[in-house]
Structure formats: C-alpha cells, structure tokens
C-alpha cells in the first residue's frame, strides 16, 4: 500500500532552497536519469571540483532529496523520489483554488 508522504512547511522550504541552486538541480536531474552514481562519477559530469559536488550532495541529502550508501571507500547517491513527489504535492496545496482558475 502506497501512502503519500506529507511535508511540513519547514521541510518544504528546505527542499525549495536545495532545488533553487542550478547545480544542485542538475545533480538531482542526473541522478533521476541515471539512477545511482558515485560522487566521482557525478564530478566527471560537471565542470566543478569533486569537493564542490560533495558539498551539493550534502545539501541535497539534508533536504532528503538524495540518499547515500557506502560500499568500501565509495559513496553512491540516488534520488529520493518520495521527497520530490511530496514537495510537488505540497506546492499544489499552497492555493489550489487560485491555481485551478489559471489557464496553462
């Protein structure tokens, strides 16, 4: 049985802040597209130092948008879709009535 995860406003703000950075958003998109990648593999895909990628991953992990597992000396990261979906749902609840009346 799938239950929808609900975000508190505080957690939603943390997620929004994490997603507001273009590099973090790109890292999350990459993980969504490619599944699980190591920090080194991610660093190869971006024109920034591995330490900077690591910093961005830490922020994404704090927002629960990314999870990490350790295998030997390597750390592997994957997107947490539940948090992303909960955030999307939270956005729709901000002012649902008003948004329903705006044509797309």
Layout of helices and strands:
Blueprint: H1 9-19, H2 22-34, E1 37-38, H3 39-45, H4 50-62, E2 66-71, E3 74-79, H5 81-92, H6 96-100
Antiparallel strand pairs: 1-3, 2-3
Helix pairs in contact: 1-4, 1-5, 2-4, 3-4
Descriptive notes:
- It contains six helices and three strands.
- The chain is α+β, with helices and mostly antiparallel strands and 104 residues long.
- The chain has a single domain, classed as Orthogonal Bundle (Arc Repressor Mutant, subunit A), CATH 1.10.10.
- It is 59% helix and 13% strand.
What number of domains?
A: 1
- DSSP helix fraction: 55-70%
Distance between the termini: 33 Å
Q: List the strand order in the largest sheet.
A: 1-3-2
Cα Rg: 15 Å
Mean pLDDT: 90
Separate helix tally = 6
CATH class: Mainly Alpha
The CATH topology label is Arc Repressor Mutant, subunit A
| Number of β-strand runs | 3
The appropriate CATH architecture is Orthogonal Bundle
Question: Which residue ranges are poorly predicted, with pLDDT under 50 across at least 5 consecutive positions?
Answer: none
CATH superfamily: Winged helix-like DNA-binding domain superfamily/Winged helix DNA-binding domain
Structural class: alpha+beta
What's the short story on this structure?
The chain is of the alpha+beta class. 59% of the residues lie in helices and 13% in strands.
Question: Key terms for this structure?
Answer:
104 residues; alpha+beta; Arc Repressor Mutant, subunit A; 6 helices; 13% strand; elongated
């Amino acid at each position: 049985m799938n239950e929808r995860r609900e975000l508190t406003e505080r957690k939603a703000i943390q997620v929004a802040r994490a997603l507001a950075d273009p590099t973090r958003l790109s890292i999350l998109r990459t993980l969504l597209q490619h599944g699980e990648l190591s920090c080194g593999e991610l660093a190869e895909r971006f024109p920034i130092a591995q330490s900077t990628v690591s910093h961005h991953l830490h922020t994404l992990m704090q927002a629960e948008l990314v999870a990490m597992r350790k295998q030997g000396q390597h750390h592997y990261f994957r997107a947490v879709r539940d948090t992303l979906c909960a955030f999307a749902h939270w956005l729709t609840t901000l002012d649902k009535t008003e948004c329903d009346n705006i044509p797309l």
